[in-house]
Amino acid sequence: MTESQTGRPPLAEEEPEPAERRGRPGRWKVLVAGLLVVAALAAVTWVLLGSRLLVVRHVEVTGAELAAPERVVAAAGISLGRPMARLATGEIAERVERLREVESAEIERHWPGTVRIAVRERVPVAAFERGGRHHSIDRHGVVVADGEARPSGLPTLAVATPGPSDRTTLAALAVLSGLPERIGKNVREVGATGPEAVTLRMASGQTVVWGAAERAGEKIRLLDALWRTAAGRAVHTADVSAPEVLKTQ
């Protein structure tokens, strides 16, 4: 239909908007959002690593009795004022674990400024005498403490070369550590001439020939049954090294 027919001029067709003009606002939004993210990350990084807001202000020690807390802190080597986020907790734990009294250590960050060193100490299970000093030793054969006086409450360890790499020592300590309290508290000496030749000497004067550390459950049941009888309590030596056959003297 023409202009003459309608009396109105024809509508001009709209020109399409260039593609680059249509995409420009979207790109600006992405760019602004990216800049905001970068700024936020930079601010967080500065707070964590560069500012004085989140730095070490206090070092606490828990679980330390044999090792003085001051020694634990010194071994940890944590500098006050160091950013909390920069602490190498694994390396700090390794340094603390070099103390002979410490079996394991865990380093905990307590924001905003406290580091807690949770110590698990070695537990002495026996003592031996060497060079005029008495040494307390844990179940792994590590010397925990030493002094001139014999530690009370610990049985004597009687082996030729006590130490963490000596198989005879480890066998004797494994037997001692595996005893239930009702038996262990009455042991006055654990001795061994070899890894399969462990002997217990009790407070009652009785001797228990234990043998190897294996089959501890069977050996304990034999001793319990023996000592429940009057005749058993009068036995001088009980040999449970072969649990199939109980030998007594």
Could you list some keywords that capture this structure?
alpha/beta; Rossmann fold; Ubiquitin-like (UB roll); 2 domains; 249 residues; 3-stranded mixed beta sheet; 33% helix; 6-stranded mixed beta sheet
How would you characterize this protein structure?
The longest helix is centred in the N-terminal third of the chain and has 32 residues. This protein has 249 residues and is an alpha/beta fold. It folds into two domains: 64 residues, membrane protein fhac (Ubiquitin-like (UB roll)), CATH 3.10.20.310; 125 residues, Rossmann fold, CATH 3.40.50.11690. A hairpin with a 4-residue loop joins strand 5 and strand 6. The strands form three sheets. Strands 7-8-9-10-11-12 form a six-stranded mixed beta sheet. A three-stranded mixed beta sheet has the order 1-3-2. The mean pLDDT is 87. 33% of the residues lie in helices and 26% in strands. Helix 3 crosses helix 4. It contains eight helices and twelve strands.
The first-to-last residue Cα distance is 131 Å
Give the low-pLDDT segments.
Answer: none
Total helical elements: 8
Number of strands: 12
What is the H level of CATH, i.e. the homologous superfamily of the largest domain? Cell division protein FtsQ/DivIB
Report the CATH architecture of the largest domain: 3-Layer(aba) Sandwich
The shape, in one word, is: elongated
